[in-house]
Every structure is written in structure tokens, then in C-alpha cells.
Amino acid sequence: MARPPQGRSLIPGPARLGMVDPQAADRLASLGWDRDEDIDLLWALSRAPDPDRALLAIDRLRDALASEWEELDAALREDTGLRGRLLSVVGSSTALADHLIARPHLWHKLRGQDLDLPDAEGLRANMLAAVEAGAEPEQIDGIDLARSLIYRAATTGHAAIPALRNAYRDELLLLAAADLAATVQNEPVLPYPSVVRHLSDLAAAALTAALAVAVATVCPDKPCPSRLSVIAMGKCGARELNYVSDVDVIFIAEPADSTATRLASEMMRIGSAAFFEVDAALRPEGKSGALVRTLDAHIAYYKRWAHTWEFQALLKARPMTGDMTLGEQYVTALNPMVWVVSERDDFVDNVRKMRRRVESLIPDDIRDREIKLGAGGLRDVEFAVQLLQLVHGRVDDTLHVTATTEALTALASGGYIGREDAANLTASYEFLRLLEHRLQMQRLSRTHTLPALDDGEALRWLARAAHIRPDGKTDAAGMLIQDIKRNISRVRRIHTKLFYRPLLESVSKLDTDALRLPEEAATRQLAALGYSAPRNALGHLQALSGGVTRSNRIQALLLPTLLDWLSDTPNQDAGLLAYRRMSEELRDKQWFLRTLRDEGAAARRLMHILGCSAYVPELLLRAPDVLRLYADGAHGPKLIGTDPDDVSKGLLASATRHGSAQRAISAARSLRRAELARVASADILGMLSVPAVCHALSSVWVAVLEAALGATIASSVEERGEPAPARIAVIGMGRLGGAEISYGSDADVLFVCEPQPGIDETVAVKWATGIAEALRKHLGAPSTDPPLEVDTNLRPEGRSGPMVRTLAAYDAYYSQWAQIWEVQALLRAHQVAGDHDLGIEFLHIADKARYPQGGVSSNAVREIRRIKARIDSERLPRGADPKTHTKLGRGGRADVEWTVQLLQLQHAHELTSLRNTSTLETLDAIAAEGLLSEEDTDLLREAWVTATKVRNALVLSRGKPSDQIPAGGPDLRAVAYVAGWRGDPGEFVENYRRITRRARTVVERVFGG
């Protein structure tokens, strides 16, 4: 270094040393660290993660050392090892700095170029020495305790806990100093496996000492008669413990008597007070179960009662302290049960449910900063690794390892995951664990939450503590953010293909050096991933990616992500089959795979729909262009960028371009097919409300009727060679008239005609009847599309009455002979197709019947109630559950509609706002007019919308009309999923029953009088 000009100091100011504390300069001066010969010491201080925090700690340490300060000051100038360890640890951890200041003599242990950390035996000896513990006798009542780690402490009572805490933190300080030294001095970074194993060994030593105090407390005068073994679970069991973490344990004792229970309780109390939270919640029956059990009791529980997650937890089980022989017997007895748990039917579902539950516990305000539980975080790696271990460990003993990184290595060696994926996942996992350690070390608190992105100082500290330095272009905080995003993104990306890439490599013909899963292993993995027919699924994968074409290569790249999205759906088998059929059908359409490759949202939406719906895939196969709408446009999803009224106009325009009725109706069917696929897709994806779905479906039904009627009339006119003899109109009834059509609804209609001037009425009616019959025949022709059934049974006199009547005939019938149920049916009559003016004239006739002067009589009201009671008792299908039948069940759609229609019959003659064919709009009017309270109308509206949504979900999931919610099983899961329910399907049913039960109370009070 060149000498500065005479009189100019080499010492940089506090700001250049990275300090912002205004008292930094005074502290440096008081320490005597402001001379030119202190330059190396000061630059080392500047490299501490937080130089201000380090300087303050050194200043406090000087006061604590008093006369020894000069010795430390001199050592810091000469001993670079001491300098790196001391400055890095006090610049990283406030808690450990406080501990060092409270026990200042510990700085001597940080001296020297090499810091030798004690091994497991040394750690145990140091912790036992803190409470002057000696070994128990080697035999108790003839039982050999040679392999026991049970000791008896001389220090007990109130003195034991501070002695243990100090000893534990002494060891923690030494490890942290070695772990952090590279932040200040150019020393090798302590490998991640070494850190977590040392922490795990330290925890075992600490609990051994805590057990020694417990022995002396519970059995002060004689050896304890119980053999007690402590099993480490979780991260401690896997020897990958954090700096601050709960230590999960399970206790086994022989006998499991009150003495053993007191020993375990006392050990937990002492350990939790001195070191870390000791948690026994993973024991059989959790916190409600016995704290201590015998080995036989444990075995009996796991054979009969244990849940899947409990066996998953046993992957990490390891004898830690106490009677090690008994602990090894426990692991040996339960280990075989662990490796067959993947054969359970609900295995994958339970594992995923556990993962989703963990994610649901993350508060929304820290979700993006949670590196342990969040997406792309540590849990994603651990759950994925454990799932693969459980799947393949049944036949491959090399996977019987406990640590996550060791399991990744074993999985890669066995060909269950790619070697590159394993290496990248290991690197990202260790990086995230490093950040977790640094965050916990700061205050010795259990945390996994990153600083906010706008907290520059906290990010800068964390980056420096994690050995991240600026590169000249980006500061340390910016580089840290980049590294975090890159690693979380990499975990997410690899996680999506972890289960599927080896499967595809085993069936594809891509050139790859990766090990290939044998067919048995591939089938086993697919079964564990939830496929009920894994061999069929493997065949689909072979067909999709097993060739050498460009499409096969693209499929091999796409499928890991597609299959991961499909895995969240209730029917993966059907979804994969539908995807194969679609891929084969569209093999010549280059845009198909290009869309899936380039439009991630489109691909995700497609797999979501294929895995839950039997209705939509069939439509998509015949209307594939709808798939283009799955992508996002400039203003959001293209699926909802279409106005149903515009679709209707387009359908009518297309149909009129065709010469024959058959071709016109075929064109109308094609456009209807596409619109059904669009609406159903948007519905399943949660993009459309129930009223919007009903409006869209009604609109397309009306357009089809209009197009078919127009084409049929045009064909008849051409065939006759003369103008039509009559005007004809189609009146929508029921849900068609109310614009509340569902997926499985027929079109209830009336046909009305009026002779042209000079045409005999008989001739006109005969011709119109032929048109109506032809229309029904054309629309009802067999087809692979959802049916187009035109139902005329609501006409006067029902099936025995004429198909078509004139205005005068309708007027005469409704004024003289109409029964009350026919008047009620007219409440939903609305002109939908044909001659508009004629339709309006019919509605004026209908108004006289449905809105009679003075309202309906009390006898008519009683008759309506009688009819409804008869329907309730006779129309409900045999075996149907009235609590979950969406149409005729209690509080279902019929209940709500009949209640609304009764109020219309009673009040619409004087309250014109009630003259509406829509159930929901009429409910709004009823509330506005004060006929019912808003609370009552809200209950009725919620029940109607819920029942309609569930009925739609029944059709969408099963592909055919149904009104009965399934009792359970896969069918119920699919219906709940399509209805947007992501929780327990049983809770979905209970939610439906609760909503309809509350509505039923309103119905009974209002409709029942």
C-alpha cells in the first residue's frame, strides 16, 4: 500500500466502514482503533454483517473484560482467526453477543487459526459436566444398561437450568463463530451438513443432560426403575436441525408407569426452559394421548390406528438419548410399517392434504416472505422428497435415509429423479436453510420470514451474513433478492416435474443420460400419485411422448408441468385420457401444442378442466378452437370476453347462410357446441357467476330455437312454393322463459300461430303444427352433443292437447278452463323466437290469466299448496335424499321458485315490479316492495344460487343431468371441486345442507302460510 501524503491519515471514516451510528467515531476513538496501524482491524470490522452492531458489542465487551481488554485488543490485531470469528458473530447475532458479554472469558475459545469443534461425545461430556452428571449403574434388576445414556446430575433444582443454558449457548457460540467467520475473513464456509449435524448432536447432548437432572429429581435416592428411551423426530431425528427450532420427541418406557411419565415430563420441562421447546405432540393420539407408552403399545397403535402423516413423520425417527437399545427396538419394529404406507388408497391425497393445510396456515401478509412454508420454500422440497421415499422405499433400501439432502442423493442414484434436478434442488435447499439460520441466529428466535423488500438495512445485513457481496453493479441487498427469487423459482420449477420427469424419460425415446425407471417402478409411482389405473396411465404417457416426432419431443417437455397441474384435480385418470385423445385429434394443428407451450395460463386451465369434467372434454374435441380462448388477452381471460348476445347474433347470421333446414340447424349446433364449451369452461374456472351462466345458456338456447325455426319455415316455404300461411311464435316457459336455463335443462315452450289474411284457420294451424313437429324432430335428432330437447307438455291440456293453437284459442282456454297450475306456469312465459309481435300479443293474453284482477282466490292458494305437497311426496325419485336433492329437495330450487311464484300470484296484479319471469330479479322486487325481509330474500336467493350451482356442477363433472348430490367417494369430490370447493367434500355437503335448511324455514313460513 502506497504511503499517504505527510499528515494524512489512512483511517477511513465510519461511513466508509459501513456505519450509520452517529456515536461510531467516538466508540472507535475510545477503543483506540483510530490509528493508522489499526487499518486491517477496521477493514475487518467493516466486513461484519452489521458493523455498528459489532462495534457496540466490542465496546460493551471491553467494559465486561476490564483488565483483560488489553489482551483481547492485542489478540485481535495479531490473530486473524479470532478476529474473523469474534467480529462476525457479534455483527450477526445480538443474542450471542449478549451471551459473550455476560461470559466474557469465552473469547479465549475463539483463538487460533483453526477452531476444533467437539464431536458428539465431546458435546455430551461438556453438557453433562455443566450439571456434574455421572453415569447410572450399568445394571438395574438384571437389566443391562451398558448402552444407556441415562446419567444422574449433582446440580439440580433452580441452579440446573442456568447452568445448562450457559453450557448450551457456549457451544452454540462456538459453532456460530465458525459458521460465520467467512463473512469477515477469507476462510472456508462451514458446509451445511456439518452445521446441521452439529446442531442435532448438541440438541441430543443437551437433552441427555436434561434427563440427568430429571433422574436426580424424580429418583433422588435410588436408581430409577424404568427404562426410558427418547426418540428424536423431525429435523432433529434427521440430524438437520436449525439454530432455533422445536425438538420433536417420542418417549418409550418399560414399564410405562408414573415414574417414567414423571421422568419424561421433567426432562421436557427442563429442556424447554434451558434450551429449546421440547415437543411430544407427534406421539400416538397427539397431545391427548399418553406421554409415555411401552414398545408394545406403540406397535399396537401404529398397526391399527395411525394416520398416513404419522408414518411420514416416522421417516425421521432416531434414538437420541436414554435407553438406546430400547430406542433401536422401537425403530426396528416400526420401520417396516413406514415403507408400506404408500399402498394405502388415500396415501397421496393425505400427503397433499397435509401440505395444503400447512400452506393455509401462512398469514396473507407474509406469504411471499415465508421461506419455510410458502410455495417454492423448504417444505416443498421436504414433502416432495418424503413422498418419493415412501413410494419407492418399499423395494429400495437405499432410500431408507433420514436427511433431506441425503435422500435427494439416494433418489438420484436410484434414477427416481434426475441428477441435475437433485443437484439444483440440493443447492436451493441449502441456500434457503442458510438464510433461515441467519434469520434465527440474529436474536435466537424461531423465524422463517424474510425482511420486507423495502427494508434495505435488514436485507443488507442478511446478505452479508449469508456471504453475499456486491459485484460492482448490484449491491448486496439487490443480489440477495435476485438469489432468493432464483432459488424459489427453481424449487417451484423442479417441484412440478419431480414426480413426472423420470416417468417420461422411462417411456420416451429422447436422447438422455438419465437413469430410466423400470416399468414396475414407474407403475408404482403413478399409483402413488393417485392414478387408479397406473398401467393405463403409463400407456398414455408412452403414446404421448414415446415417439421421435417433434410433437413427441414437445409433449415430453410439457408433460411434467401439465401432469403436476392435473394432479390437483379429482380425476387424473380421466384427465390424462382426455388429454391424450385431444392431442391425437389435434396432432395436425400446430397451434395446439404451441398454445400450451407459450400460454401457461391456457395449459393450466385446460388440465384443470380435463381432470374434473366429463362434459367439457367431449365438447372441446368437436370444438377445438375454443382452446384458443383459454389464454389471456390484453384485458383478461378471453373466455369471458364474449357477450352472449353477440354470440346469439353470430349464430343466427351463420345459420341463415345455409340453404336447407338440416344444414342450417347443423351450423347452429356447431356454434352452440362452441358456446357451451366456452361457458362451461369459464364456469368451472370460476370466471362466471351463476346468473351469468344461466343468462349465457338461455341466450344460446333462444338463438338455436330462432335459427332452427327460421330454417324450418324457409325450407317449408321453398318446398310449398308459396308464402307461409301463418305467423308463428315460440313462447319460452319454465327456466327458458325466466332466462335461467341450466346445463341439463330442456326447453319448455308453447307454439302459437295466427293465420295470414285470407287463410283458413285450420290450414294455418295444420301448417304450424308441421313446423313445430319438424323443429322438435330436427333439434332432438341423435347427436354426440348435449341434447336439444324441446318440451311442449306445459301447453293447454298437456300431451292430449293440440301442439299449436291460435291466439283466440289460447285466450278462450286460459279465460275459461285453465287450472291454477297452468296459470302458475304462465308466470314464466316469455317470447323467445319467431314472430316477435305475435309473441307479445300472446303475452298480453297471458297477463290477464297470470295477473288477474284482485289476485288469485284463497281456494287457488290452497290448491297450489296441495299440488306442491303432492310433488314433494311423489315426484322425488326413489332412494333420493330430500336434504341433498337440488331440484325437489328441502330448500332446493323448486321450493324457492314455488314460494316466489305464490307471492307473484297473490300480489303481482297490483305490484307491477313483480311481473318478472326471473326468479332472482323477482326476489329483488319482493324485498324492495317489503313483502319479505331482506334477510328472508337473501336466504332464498342464496339457496337458489347454491342449488343451481351444484346442479350445474353435477352435469359438468358427470357429463349427464342429475339433481342428486352423491353420497361420497370420487363422484362427490368431483362435484365439490367443480363447484369451487377446495376443502373436505363432506364439509361441502354440510355447507349445502346448512344453506338449504335455512331457506326451508322461510319456505315453510311463507309458502306454507
From TrEMBL:
Assigned protein family: Belongs to the GlnE family.
Enzyme class name: transferase
The name this protein goes by in its record: Bifunctional glutamine synthetase adenylyltransferase/adenylyl-removing enzyme
Gene3D superfamilies, alphabetized: Beta Polymerase, domain 2 (3.30.460.10), Nucleotidyltransferases domain 2 (1.20.120.330)
GO CC annotation: cytosol
Organism: Lolliginicoccus lacisalsi
Annotated keywords: ATP-binding, Magnesium, Multifunctional enzyme, Nucleotide-binding, Nucleotidyltransferase, Transferase
Region named Adenylyl removase: 1-503
Top-level lineage group: Bacteria
Pfam families attached to this UniProt entry: GlnD_UR_UTase (PF08335), GlnE (PF03710)
